[in-house]
Fold these 2 entries.
Entry 1:
Amino acid sequence: MRLQSSFAAAALLVGASQACSAAIFTVLGSEPGSWPIILSSVGHLPGPATQAGIFVARAGTPAAADWKAKVEHGAALILEGTSPVASSFGFKAGTDSISTVHLVDTHNPALPVIWEKAIELPRYEAPANAQIFAKERWTGAPLVAGVKVGLGAVLWVAADPGRNGYERFPYLMQALADLGVAPVFRSSRLWAFFDYSYRSRADLDYLAERWRKAGISALHVASWHFFDGDPERDAYLKRLIEACHRHGVLVYAWIELPHVSDKFWNDHPEWREKTAILQHAQLDWRKLMNLQNPDCVDAIRTGVRRMMQRFDWDGANLAELYFESLEGAGNPARFTPMNDNVRAAFRAQSGWDPVELWSTRTDAESLRQFLDFRAGLAKRMQEEWLQTAESFREFRPDLDIVLTHVDDRFDTGMKDAIGADAARVLPLLDRQQFWFLIEDPATVWNLGPQRYPEIAAKYKPLTKHPEKLAIDINIVDRYQDVYPTRQQTGTELFELVHLAASAFPRVALYFENSILRPDMPLLASSAAVVRSYSLDARRLTIDSPMDIEVNWSGDGALVDGKPWPAHGSGMLRLPAGAHTLERSARLDAPSITDLNAVLRSAVVESGKRVSFEYTSDSRAIATFDRRLSLLEIDGNSTTPGCDGPAVCTVMLPRGSHRVTVR
Amino acid sequence: VESCIRLATLCLLATVALAQEPDAAYDTLVRAFDSQRAHDYDAAVALFQKAAALSPGRPDIRKNLAYTLLKTGDSDAAREQFGEAMRLDPADLHLALEYAFLCYEARENPSARKAEARRIFARIRESADPESRRTADQAFQNIDVPLAAGIARWRQVLAASPPTFSAVYELAQLAEQRDELELAAASYRQAFQLLPERRSVLLELARVEKTRSNSEGMMAALLAASRGPETRTAELAREQLPDRYPYVYEFREALELDPQNAALHRELAYLLLSMSEKKETARADAVEEFRAIVKDSPQDYLAAAQLGLLYLSDNREALAMPILREVLGHADQPTANRVRMALKIPLLLEERRAEVSANDPRLLGERSFEAGFLKDAKRYFLAAREQNPVDASIALKLGWTNNMLHDDAAAIRWFDIARRSSDPVISSEADKAYTNLRPDNERFRSTLWIYPLLSSRWGDLFGYGQLKTEIKVPKLPVRPYVSVRFAGDARRTTGGVSPQNLSESAFIFGVGVATRQWRGATGWFEAGTSIGYLNAQQMADYRGGLSYSKTIGVSLASERSGWFLETLADSVYISRFSNDLLNYSQNRTGFTSSVGPLKIQTFWTSNLTFDVKKQYWANFAETGPGFRFHPDGTPPSLSITLGAVRGIYLVNKGNPHRPNFYDFRVGVWYAVTK
């Protein structure tokens, strides 16, 4: 039995006086190390030992007679290194020692997990019935192992997990979940980028269902593959959007200007962007076009408009709308823009050709002059394209708009490197509705998760609309010397997402295909933010700054003492704020099993009617556990348009609305 | 006839059909396809995997597994399955095309994968199948044309502007993808030289060198990568290196590629140094290598000390002294002490201890050792040894720590290392420990002990001794042995009307087994023949028992003075004494001290002897003073004991003597083990 369900059963049904929950953890002793960070990264909360369901016994913790009984009755015990209590469960240090730097984890055996520095560890013995999760690469000595004991479980790790909690053992939370200790909370408000090239042969319903389970609310689809209109590709995208909508996932067009499409590049060599060595700007996979050429811009605008009309998009994301490259003026072979229009405009303003910066005008003042001019150009481009995106609302009134912008506050070199200047763009939020999605540049991908609260703190003073700031986490191989994995995975990823979700209302992940398989099941929990949580024999009390999902195994529920309609599929959805939960009998009214929007309130009315209020920046998607006979939006009746008898998924309009169903 | 032929054919077909192996995977495959049809891809993947394990030679199962994996979006796993299917059925061009397309999409090692895809497309476009040929040709063109353009573009960039890492690296990747391997190798090499901190480039270079069958180039890149400061690259390189230790020329080629690699220089230098014991020219090479290290890294005082000492031993003091003075002035204490030792100047003791970091593993090891946390001490000393592999004092400490942990095999290895130290204090202590421990761990161990004893009570000189050879058999908990014992005396009998033998007066030849010592206790049993040397009488002799000895405090062998408590307990079954079981307990409490060069123990002894058969001669208690000393200049294991006891028989039935007695004894103990 998984602890998450035993929690509900024990705490709510049986009404045990000594109720404990897998959501609450306690680290024994005075030195908690990084365990609070690790456990919090998937939504577990620190709490008193009397309520805790997870206990951490660090190295040296003395044995106590009642540990075995406690675990047998459902507690999860995490043991670190050598201790009498670890020995009492059969995890014993041998006399040999092993210089340990490289491990293999069963959750991803092909992934090299390598520590920055080797440490000497005793060669441990694990009990015969233990499940070995991680082994030392060269000797096979166990490093992470677990064993189920009665209703509970013991997870043992050979060493301190490191200062930040992820330096040594990336998959501790997965191991804990394998032992039945799954997180209790979830949040389904993540965004993820999507590239068709990697998924052309996948079953789209399979993927869409998986994305939703991973807490993804919107997919930002690489739209340049669909710019030119190809019957086969268009059919694919239509199927993708339909599958996503069926499973409650919204779909945004990810527009990566000045890259338009391969065909556009091939068809219009005259409009190609140039680098400072006057080569056509084909940089990595991006083939950049000249966005200062009016004819080129018109052609692109027409093409993008057509693409937005052809598909049932929920949003448009204007991404990386500035120049190249992260190496700045130091690498002229990658430096843009240097097309004829830019050169002419700058020459007209300053009296000299910017190409001279790499030959005769190598002084810092001249470079500064051009870099400021270039930042102004970038800002103007962003402004113009935001207006263009706004114009798409003529035919897609529910369209959400996102501007993805590299961070230039935390890494201040970005303005000069690529022309990005957030301070110039953020005031646009005062007069236009869009998300400002901050992308942290590759130069800081090696820094720890704490950078996200810092980034949030730097941006909030720049705008009156902090609720429109979002953050983009790049989950990719990093070029820096990073440990223990080149790409963020496991605890490091969960910490990144958790801290980002605590600091920003939206977190985007680049990209859905790079998220490693073992991370998917716990991703939604890492995005959950809960301020406090407690339980007694009858009820749970949860306080969250944003709407949240709670594991729920009961048939029905009372929230704040009233029947609650927003639950199903093992989850119960709560609006932001403090609420109490109690178990109750099943209702004979529709249940909202999923809602891709911010839930504000919900109520069960008489006559099997259910009403709820929501807010959404794009269309919302609601899923119910049955076919609806009534659907009213703000009192206006509309056709439910349900697919089948068992479930019903409906699209709802952008904004704040009250919906009534029966 | 026709009917007969038909019947025979049917029988033949039935026989062939029955002779067919049953399809082990059939049921699993049926379920796999059912799951696939139900869009339960996770279940289908698991079932196809099971079927593939049951019928590993069937490419069709791999192919179906790959297509199901594609449905789940797991292209990497699908590619591996297509690859396996392709290996099983190389003629299936469709499989090869699928594999190649997925290689081209791969995100991991993209350059190598794209190159592989291009090669497969190039091969298939020469095939006989027109459709496959057409597909492959199109794919090849789609890959090759942009690659060629990219290579031309970056070549142009590099021709027009100074080389940057990103330009050269991009060129290298494109060249690798297009199988322009010479250009790729040269570009990766150049990229690494432009940005040596990006050590992962060495792995890419190694990969290209391997593809172009340049095993020496591959080895150089891997060796350089494996010894670098970046552990990820080092570990990934280590996975690809051969099991054997690299040759000197391979080190040199790696250094040519990565001349700033201090770890590589140092390892080569020590390798040459160790080789110099057998090969004189290696010494000069070692000197050169240390000289290069010191030149590039003047702060590497360990290498500097080694270089200075090498100069010193070559009588090149003018070269040695400036370097050694620098070491004395700046190096850590152990390194400085090595130099001080060589220069015969007093060692630094604790004055620099405050400078030692609280995280210094050596210091932590010493503290753990002192506090009795031996496992921790061992861990820390191993870490210290890793940091400073030439510090023999750490090897010595590891020897003692392992010895205390009863891991004498490891202890001997560390003592053996430490006894080669140039530090006479360390080498002497380690040699002594090695010499003491080694026999216990040799395959054959022979022990001779003799104990002549003069007794005033019996007016007799007794002699006891044994020569025993043990065989150590790995993993066997006991050690077999052969033994010759001697028990005799000068007086032979008590005389009188019923003379009694005062000793066995015999040689006893036997074979037996003894357990390893466990906390001072040993069990043994032997069977043999006793041959009397007075009457040549032979009789069977079976004996065995348990022995226990323990000394607490300062032993006679110790360098210091102090209290001691010594106890010896034996419980011995001897067949020739009417199958009796004799028990001895001998206890000494006293003080160990030095009188001039003489080591002396003054003690009080209390002995108890009793048996099962309750024979009077085997049941008595005695107590009294005594002393034991080790004369200077005699073998270390020799000691002389003088003692006086007052005794009492505990069983007097059949006792022809008085119930009480006095005895003054002088005995000489000597034992040697080889």
Entry 2:
Amino acid sequence: MNVREEARPSRSATDDAETSFDVFFAEHQARLYRMLMLVTRNPDEAEEVTQEAFVRMWAKWDQVSRIEDPARYLYKVALNFHRQGRRRAVRAARHLFARTTVRNNDPFEGFELLDALERLVLRLPPRQRAALVVTEYLGYDSAAAAEILGVQPGTVRMLASKARSQLRQGGFPQ
Amino acid sequence: MRDLKQVLEGLADKFEQPSDDFPDYLRRHKLRRRRQQRVAVLTTLSILVVAVASMGALEALHRSTPKASRSANAAATFSTTATQPLCPVLGPPGDVPSLSSSSGPAGSTVTISGPLPDSNGRVYLGPGSPDLTVYWNLNPDDWESVYQSPNSPTASVAGTPVQYLGTQHFTGACNFQMQIQIPSGAAPGTYPIVVLIQDSGWGTDLDPMNYQVVGS
């Protein structure tokens, strides 16, 4: 410890919380955003959910920082917020589609550099893709993934198995 | 040859967070929270000061008021501060419905029941008033297709059309129960039954159930 640090007044609990949160943020920001990109396929949605998840984490940081795996809680908060947004969007979409012709939007617009295998992964149904991302990309077992996704472990295994089967049918190597 | 994890890692690495203002956003949020905390502390102090002053006044009133009227005041306070009861908090698996019978002949009547989730999927606060709509053979992984392509939603069992089985409205309930009839023309096989829930501003699917049609 140098002289300047010794002379500095002792740090408050708030400062410590901010420092530990900043470290947590720096460690997990990019991975959370990328995980959300894999799940949502939408940069705006991924960014919004990333921001909101960290804001919610910060609001509860006093408690969350003490749990064993705060990152798991972060992913859970993010995917829950994403699901809420999806629910709101479904209702809005219902009215929209009732009035307009369905446009066949290309979800990969702007991702021209993706190869065939990557496109195959992004074409999976949302629930299957989410199960695969949490188990394979984030590396959680089915029990932890179930907690993050808010479903039963059996449902996670079923969704991941369906996803793998669909990938194999699409030409993904065994 | 890349495995699935490598494909996902490679794919994820292509996604860079586009905006640089997120740390600023968080910083602003933290500053706002500190301001809110300061305001909360000042508000609490103010309330304490007012409460202490009020207690003094109440004490004076207590000494000068007959007993019967004091108990009436207490009853009135209790009734106005009573809160609406909350539904039980659901742990995982949360909003999982169940069927009274998971197999039977076509045309059978079965009952679906389960807890009603709120928009968090965990705590139902009531008094929501959702609509529950039930579909036969709708692909649970593509349930949005009933909204996006109402005339040709995605079927789970190929060659068997998706059928609408009914809608029921619920108000202020923690659980639901509704009767449906298995389509009379359904061929033997296993079909999903999907329940969609819609409330003001949101909608989602509950966990799908399977029903096995056996020969009559």
